[in-house]
Q: What sequence folds into this?
């Protein structure tokens, strides 16, 4: 059974509250005074999401940020989180202290606080697993949903796409034949994702629908299409690439496919009527991030059609899946 089927058939029947949206979205919400309280949970496992010898502060930052990107994509300002830690029996005290220092730095950076959690020894022989549950509030607005993408709405992505996936590939296989500064930028993108968390308010104000990109641009856009019951055109020539990714693609053209299908960037993919795009982009830029239109939602089958300079492009499949 693949991951999506497992969630849809085994877990979704347990999620009976409307705020969980049938487990079809980045996060759940429940009424909490003015606006919604939005809640999300993502776990990271050694050897699956990070390397056991990655800096503990980076593992901590990633654990928190992958959750904060979900909240920002729902138009919610993060305010608190719960932390469940399963640690190997031989875990050093230094490791935990460096891990906590990473959390402390991100608490200051994002204005969140730890509410509680749980700590246990990992199964014998097992590596660390870090589970964060994060809470946000929409401050009077409504939760932004994937399902609300509408035909004709433009698709806009923040930041650049593929940096983290290429950073991971460089570590798993051979490094790309690129400058050390570019290689370092890809490695940093993998270790320290930088989602536009502060953009939560801009998403809430301008976006009809939004989600964070964890499993890859094409695969996650396809998820949004399925939630919305609509198709999408994605213009591959418009996808924003960093100088480091462009250098990797120049050295190895297959890096392009990996960049648009690979995950781990935690950028925000949003849709909005054409007339909102300029305001959205300007507001994201005012926060120190970037945003780039990459396509359009279309009526029809929930499929992503790839274009290159306005013409049909080859079909690229693939996204990160655990099973
Ligand atoms: N074991 C589970 N129990 C309950 N709900 C789950 C479980 N696993 C996933 N979900 C729910 O299924 C939906 C999809 O989860 P998924 O992890 O694919 O999305 P995501 O968190 O947005 O993406 P990613 O984990 O790649 O960042 C979410 O609503 C999530 O809360
Ligand atoms: C060591 C190592 N191997 C592979 C990957 C790639 N990866 C793992 S999970 C995931 C998607 C998001 O996770 P989830 O769907 O669980 O939220 C991606 C892109 C990685 N980050 N580290
Ligand atoms: Mg998840």
A:
């Amino acid at each position: 059974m693949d991951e999506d089927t497992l969630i849809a058939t085994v877990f979704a029947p347990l999620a009976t509250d409307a705020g969980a949206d049938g487990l079809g979205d980045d996060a759940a919400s429940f009424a909490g005074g003015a606006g919604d309280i939005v809640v999300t949970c993502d776990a990271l496992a050694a050897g699956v999401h990070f390397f056991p010898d990655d800096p503990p502060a980076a593992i901590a930052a990633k654990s928190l940020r992958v959750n904060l990107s979900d909240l920002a994509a729902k138009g919610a300002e993060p305010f608190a989180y719960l932390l469940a830690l399963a640690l190997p029996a031989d875990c050093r005290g230094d490791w935990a202290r460096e891990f906590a220092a990473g959390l402390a730095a991100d608490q200051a950076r994002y204005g969140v606080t730890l509410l509680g959690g749980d700590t246990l020894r990992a199964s014998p022989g097992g590596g660390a697993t870090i589970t964060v549950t994060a809470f946000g509030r929409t401050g009077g607005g409504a939760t932004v949903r994937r399902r609300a993408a509408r035909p004709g709405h433009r698709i806009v992505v923040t930041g650049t796409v593929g940096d983290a996936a290429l950073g991971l590939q460089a570590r798993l296989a051979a490094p790309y034949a690129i400058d050390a500064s570019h290689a370092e930028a890809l490695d940093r993108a993998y270790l320290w994702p930088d989602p536009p968390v502060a953009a939560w308010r801009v998403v809430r104000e301008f976006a009809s629908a939004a989600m964070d990109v964890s499993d890859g641009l094409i695969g996650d856009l396809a998820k949004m299409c399925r939630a919305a019951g609509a198709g999408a055109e994605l213009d591959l020539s418009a996808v924003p690439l960093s100088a480091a990714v462009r250098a990797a693609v120049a050295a190895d053209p297959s890096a392009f496919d990996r960049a648009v299908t690979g995950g781990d960037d935690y950028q925000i993919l949003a849709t909005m009527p054409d007339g909102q795009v300029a305001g959205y982009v300007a507001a994201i830029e005012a926060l120190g991030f970037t945003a780039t239109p990459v396509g359009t939602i279309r009526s029809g089958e929930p499929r992503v059609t790839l274009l290159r300079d306005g013409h049909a492009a080859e079909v690229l499949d693939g996204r990160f899946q655990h099973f």
About this structure: The chain has two domains: 3-137, 146-312. The pocket of thiamin phosphate (ligand 2) is lined by residues 42, 47-51, 168, 214-215, 263-264, 320 (CB under 6 Å). The chain has a mean pLDDT of 93. The first strand starts at residue 28 and ends at 31.
